[in-house]
Automatic annotation (TrEMBL):
Keywords: Carbohydrate metabolism, Glycosidase, Hydrolase, Polysaccharide degradation, Signal, Xylan degradation. This is Xylan alpha-1,2-glucuronidase. Transmembrane segments: none annotated. Residues 445-668 form the Glycosyl hydrolase family 67 C-terminal domain. Gene3D superfamilies: Alpha-glucuronidase, C-terminal domain, Chitobiase/beta-hexosaminidase domain 2-like, Glycosidases. One of its GO terms (biological process) is xylan catabolic process.
Length: 673
């Protein structure tokens, strides 16, 4: 049968030799055969042509005829399909009779929608779905699905662990590395529609004519794949580039400089997305330098891009060394009063938690607290605090834990409702992910890190997907449809982030890492000039207890949360144990749900984290014969590194805690080495 033939050809599909190094990402599991005859495009735009060629490239031998089209094609219009609910970028994929022939129709209202539909069909087939019964329909819930590259103009990548930047600024704009196309294609396959090319710690040079030309060359490559280019803007650029005396956003000369700069960019990149700005944070210039507010700064830039349809993504990751307030509170204190004062083409971009991409943080209290402002969420795909490229940590559960969190602001409202704009019917909505992409052959430093890029894209499209279904679908597309492989890989992935939490410091502890590079333990560090950079600032451990009192008797960060959420965080008894020490300072003897005391429980978490990694090693060993040697070996090696380093985290941390609390290890627990 057709179905039988399809699944056989999927399983048997020969992998091209170059695929084994991970370069092909998740777009690899179906044979490449020339299916010219099978796929027809009704129209000849660059994007529709890509949609057709992607299908030809991916399809197995036995496939029914496929037509790619937009809703406006006359023969498609005649079918009266439900296009009205699909918006600009949605798609449907279904079996229809077109001009008297049974075909699979892949169509959206725009050719971008059609391209997403083509990738959805490829995903459907690559994950074991059948062509005969295909019926897919989806529209993105979030409008701006954007990667943030922390890539510098010298081609280093801040917090990047996959090699140098993929942007070769030196040879751009003339040479357009084919890799740029592969990059855009991978992004389009998961629905990502924008990319900020340069680091938030921006250099003014990125706004000079030569760099605008380079960005334009990239934008030309990305455009047919539905991706727009954005730039991080250095707020003081009018001084550095324009020779002005000030960058005060209220100064008309400053506003005029930015307007002229925006016009210049739009002449080169007519669909330029807009600016991302890190202002008055970690030494970056900003409107506060002049006594102006973040809204003054954002609105001035927003006015510069407004006529071109551009937007401004203004980051709320703001804290000042001069501010004695709990660092976890500062962004809320600064931004909440500004709600309602931002221009309508501004989004405020808020990190998922109030500190900085820790293995676990409670959701940022700004979500739900600024109903009159579209808030983008910013996740970190690159694993700055979760073991760089070497440790296996699937971030799907981290992302969904935050997206699914109830804000407490309105009945039932979740962070996802705020982010996708549903809560307040905002016109703009967005999700940003700090990219983990570099020049490594496998793009992300390891095969499993690719899953975090993938999960980010899938969740930006639909924040209501489950981390597990994303993991399964990634596993099938990455390693093939063998049941044992998918089950094992998914099982490894699903607990892997919690394992990192366990071996780096569980129960709501955070920011215990070594200084500067952020790899490895450093809970003892207390001598950094900025108090809020010291791990001791966060854990506050002494002989009696541990944790940060953020209740009314402490910093009262709890007071920034609302309703039932604030209520539950206010007392240790009602705070989830996973966040206990984030909000409370408690005695080592405190009784925990496990029946153990806090100290014993903490030790058990360290042990559990180490054991999980050892278990992943065994699971992976069991897949040796089922995965190509190159990807298998690299992963096995990295798991061995991770196991060693999980023990390092455990042992160093326990030795330190014991030096503070002078407690023995619970009976039967292995002493730190
Ligand atoms: C973290 C990270 C920095 C980065 C900053 C930011 O602090 O360590 O490298 O610049 O976040 O998000 O702006």
């Amino acid at each position: 049968t057709l179905i039988g033939a399809l699944s056989v050809s999927l399983v048997m599909a020969a992998q091209p030799a170059w695929a084994d190094d991970g370069y092909a990402l998740w777009l690899r599991s179906i044979a490449k055969v020339d299916r010219q005859a099978v796929v027809t495009a009704l129209g000849d735009s660059a994007t529709l042509t890509l949609a057709a060629s992607e299908l030809r490239r991916a399809l197995p031998m036995e496939t029914p005829a496929i037509v790619v089209a937009t809703a406006s094609a006359p023969s498609v219009r005649a079918l009266t399909l439900p296009f009205s609910t699909l918006g600009d970028e949605g798609y449907l994929v279904c079996n229809v009779t077109l001009n008297g022939k049974r075909v699979i129709l892949v169509a959206g209202n725009s050719d971008r929608g059609t391209l997403y539909g083509a990738f959805a069909l490829i995903r459907h087939l690559a994950t074991g779905g059948q062509a005969a019964a295909v019926n897919l329909r989806s529209a993105p819930k979030v409008k701006l699905r954007v990667l943030n590259h922390w890539d510098n103009l010298d081609e280093s990548v801040e917090r990047g662990y996959a090699g140098q930047s993929i942007w070769d600024w030196w040879t751009l704009p003339d040479f357009r590395d084919p890799r740029y196309t592969d990059y855009a294609r991978a992004n389009a396959s998961i629905g990502i529609n924008g990319t900020v090319l340069n680091n938030v710690n921006a250099k003014a040079d990125s706004l000079t004519a030569p760099y605008i030309a380079k960005a334009a060359a990239l934008a030309n490559v990305f455009r047919p794949w539905g991706m727009r280019v954005y730039l991080s803007a250095r707020f003081s650029a009018p001084i550095e580039l324009g020779g002005l005396k000030t960058a005060d956003p209220r100064d008309p000369a400053v506003a005029a400089w930015w307007k002229a700069k925006a016009d210049e960019i739009y002449r080169a990149i007519p669909d330029f997305g807009g600016f991302l700005v890190k202002a008055n944070s970690e030494g970056q210039p900003g409107p506060r330098d002049y006594g102006a507010s973040h809204a003054d700064g954002a609105n001035m830039l927003a006015a510069a891009v407004r006529d071109h349809g551009g937007i401004v993504m203004w980051r709320a990751f703001v804290y000042a060394e001069t501010d004695p307030e709990d660092r976890a509170k500062q962004a809320y204190s600064e931004f909440k009063p500004l709600d309602g004062t931002f221009a309508d083409n501004v989004l405020v971009q808020v990190k998922n938690g109030a500190i900085d991409f820790q293995p676990r943080e409670p959701f940022h209290p700004l979500f739900g607290a600024m109903p009159r402002t579209p808030l983008m969420i910013e996740f970190q795909i690159t694993k700055e605090y979760l073991g760089f490229a070497t440790h296996l940590a699937y971030l799907g559960p981290l992302f969904t834990e935050v997206l699914d969190a109830k804000t407490g602001q309105k009945p039932g409202e979740t962070v996802a409702d705020v982010v996708d704009g549903q809560a307040e019917h905002h016109k703009l909505s967005g999700m940003a992910g700090v990219a983990n992409i570099g020049r490594d052959r496998d793009w992300s430093g390891s095969t499993f890190n690719q899953s975090n890029w993938y999960a980010f894209g899938r969740l930006a499209w639909d924040p209501d997907l489950s981390a597990e279904e994303i993991a399964r679908s990634w596993a099938a597309q990455t390693f093939g449809t063998d049941r044992q492989v998918i089950d094992t890989v998914t099982a490894m992935m699903m607990g892997s982030r919690e394992a990192v939490v366990d071996y780096t410091g569980a129960l709501g502890l955070a920011h215990l890492m070594a200084t500067g590079h952020h790899y490895g333990p450093g809970p003892w560090v207390s001598d950094l000039a900025r108090p809020e950079w010291n791990p001791t600032y966060y854990h506050r451990a002494d002989a009696n207890g541990i944790g940060f009192d953020r209740t009314a008797s402490g910093s009262n960060a709890v007071g920034q949360y609302a309703g039932s959420v604030a209520k539950s965080f206010a007392k240790p008894e009602t705070t989830p144990e996973s966040m206990l020490l984030w909000f409370h300072h408690l005695p080592w003897d405190r009784r925990m749900a496990s029946g153990r005391n806090l100290w014993e429980d903490l030790v058990a978490h360290y042990d559990r984290g180490v054991a999980y990694v050892a278990q992943m090693q065994r699971q992976w060993e069991g897949l040796r014969s089922k995965i190509d040697a190159e990807r298998w070996q690299k992963t096995a090696t990295y798991l061995a590194v991770q196991e060693r380093e999980a023990r390092w985290w455990r042992d160093a941390s326990l030795a330190y805690w014991m030096s503070v609390n002078h407690r023995p290890l619970p009976a039967g627990v292995r002493a730190p080495e």
